[in-house]
Write a structure and sequence with these properties.
single chain; about 55% helix; globular
């Protein structure tokens, strides 16, 4: 499961790509704040479940946590590499920021019965990111990177006995 998002920051200085996996404890304050913001919308639709169901879901999520981390690392690596290459071709100064793989309690990842990641492809609040994300060539490059990351993850899974 891959949930694709575009990020924002109050300062306009934050930039680049980051990929999240589910964890009830966020990697840092910024990740926690982002999850709270996005979850506030989704949380309004959440149905009440029994404690037993919650425990069973937690156990299933734990089984997918390592797989989600592998998927996130392959996707993050591919996204950053493709963005870097595109900036070189376009002769844009600087580089695409790799914000890494992080953890946060995102609602959208909470009940996925499979490896699941949330990808923040860039920052609308950053002029450079925003300008590039508007370009079709950049969008196509990101789509290819997502596919490449999933393909590498799948190939790696096949090698595990």
């Amino acid at each position: 499961f891959i949930s694709i998002h575009v990020n924002s920051s109050p300062t306009g200085k934050a930039q680049g790509t980051e990929t999240y996996i589910l964890n009830q404890e966020a990697t840092d304050a910024e990740a926690r704040k982002l999850a709270l913001l996005e979850n506030s919308i989704a949380g309004q639709a959440e149905a009440k479940e029994s404690a037993v169901q919650d425990i069973l879901w937690d156990m299933e999520q734990t089984a997918y946590l390592q797989e989600s981390a592998y998927l996130a690392s392959y996707v993050q690596e591919a996204l950053v590499a493709h963005a870097h290459d595109l900036l070189q071709v376009k002769k844009v100064a600087g580089d695409w920021k790799n914000r890494g793989v992080r953890q946060a309690p995102f609602y959208v990842l909470n009940r996925a019965p499979m490896p699941a990641i949330l990808v923040e492809i860039g920052y609308l609040s950053n002029a450079k990111d925003r300008k590039l994300m508007e370009e079709k060539i950049f969008q196509e490059s990101l789509a290819k990177a997502l596919a490449e990351g999933v393909k590498k993850y799948r190939e790696a899974c096949r090698k595990i006995p």
